[in-house]
Amino acid sequence: MVNPKNDKEIAREILDIKKTLGQELLILTHHYQRKDIVDLGDYRGDSFGLSQKAAADKAGRFIVFCGVHFMAESAEILSQPHQTVQIPAVEAGCWMADMADIDIVEEAWGDITSITSSDSVIPIVYMNSDAALKAFCGRHGGAVCTSSNAPAAFRWGFGEREKILFFPDQHLGRNTGNQMGIPPEEMIVWDPAKPLGGNTQDSIKKARVILWDGYCLVHTRFRDKHVLKMRERFPEAKIVVHPECTEDVVSLSDAVGSTSFIVKYLENAPIGSTIIIGTEINLVNRLALENPEKKVLDLYYSLCPNMFKINLGNLLWTLKNIGQVNVVTVPEDTKKDARAALDRMLALSPKALLAKKGDSFKERQTARVTTR
Ligand code: 13P
Ligand code: SF4
């Protein structure tokens, strides 16, 4: 019987292939990837940073994306025609992205614009979505945003039109609206299973933000009771969470921001401090290893099984079949419109990171966002 290869042997083979392919290969890894994958990548980042990298890289022929499918799809849309994007596990989807599809969004858009007219509402789609939804936004003058530039995207959206339809993550949308001081009664939730999304014509007319009823199962596992319990156990600690968490969790925390914001927050934390993190466990565990002089704890254990589908075995298999297997493709017409919405996103600086009062870190200075 042939002995299965151990992780060290697989990693060595991956490094050999990387050496052979040199500049022709770019391995991008999201912050939620496990450590052994991140260690083998050329660049790690949040979904905004990875898109920027994919758009900027002109030299490579092969981009291997270690993250979930919508991220690889966005890289494919932003990459050059001579480049091929591959994902080691095509089945690495995103539950939240699956909560909105083009048919139900088109239907909701028809309902909303029959009440408000299409020049009063702008669609903004979270990066965590299918290419067809990004293309929908491109066609209707809207944009894509990520968790790092959502406030900038909202500010831009309100500069264009009176209302924003935001999908699919209601929590990122609500946290961004809260940060901008939009009153709760002006933010309504659209439940696609109900007539008019569960709203009245009047509430749709009055709303400034219409939030799709989607959420991340990984981040909504964090509850206010976890924050309260950790505060009691570690009164000296700072708590930082991702904006896909509920507004209750966010309001009890010290800071909120994208995965890259969280990484920076840790870097800037004083030596000896205790930081409790509310996001995917692989990032928390890696940050604990990388910051031994700080105490890094998870708010609660929460793993994204989709991100975890990428492993050393399927990364090696992809590299051995470079340019051939698990190639990510997007139809040309979808690509053109989705690219327009992604280009608008790339033009929106992520410097308006979400953060909270009392946060003494540098990012705090850039946190203020205002409505027009
Ligand atoms: P970031 O944009 O912070 O990388 O987050 C992506 C994501 O899927 C979080 O669940
Ligand atoms: Fe999707 Fe949530 Fe996983 Fe992010 S953590 S990829 S939003 S399921």
Could you characterize the architecture of this molecule?
- The protein is 41% helix and 15% strand.
- With 372 residues, the chain is α/β, with parallel strands linked by helices.
- The chain has 3 domains: 7-93 and 308-329, NadA-like (Rossmann fold), CATH 3.40.50.10800; 97-216 and 335-354; 219-303, NadA-like (Rossmann fold), CATH 3.40.50.
- It has a 5-stranded parallel sheet with strand order 6-5-7-9-8, with helices on both faces. A 4-stranded parallel sheet has the order 2-1-3-4, sandwiched between helices. A 4-stranded parallel sheet has the order 11-10-12-13, sandwiched between helices.
- α1 (7-21) runs parallel beside α14, α3 runs parallel beside α4 (69-78) and α6 packs across α15 (332-347).
- The longest helix is centred in the last third of the chain and has 16 residues, at 332-347.
- It binds 1,3-dihydroxyacetonephosphate and iron/sulfur cluster.
- Iron/sulfur cluster (SF4) is lined by residues 68, 94-96, 128, 216, 218, 244, 280, 304, 306-307.
- The site of iron/sulfur cluster has 12 residues, from loops.
Give the topology.
Blueprint: H1 7-21, E1 25-30, H2 35-38, E2 43-45, H3 47-56, E3 62-66, H4 69-78, E4 84-86, H5 102-116, E5 121-126, H6 131-139, E6 143-145, H7 150-160, E7 163-167, H8 170-179, E8 187-190, H9 201-206, E9 209-212, H10 224-233, E10 238-241, H11 247-252, E11 255-256, H12 259-268, E12 274-278, H13 281-290, E13 295-298, H14 312-320, H15 332-347
Parallel strand pairs: 1-2, 1-3, 3-4, 5-6, 5-7, 7-9, 8-9, 10-11, 10-12, 12-13
Helix pairs in contact: 1-14, 3-4, 6-15
The protein binds 1,3-dihydroxyacetonephosphate (13P) and iron/sulfur cluster.
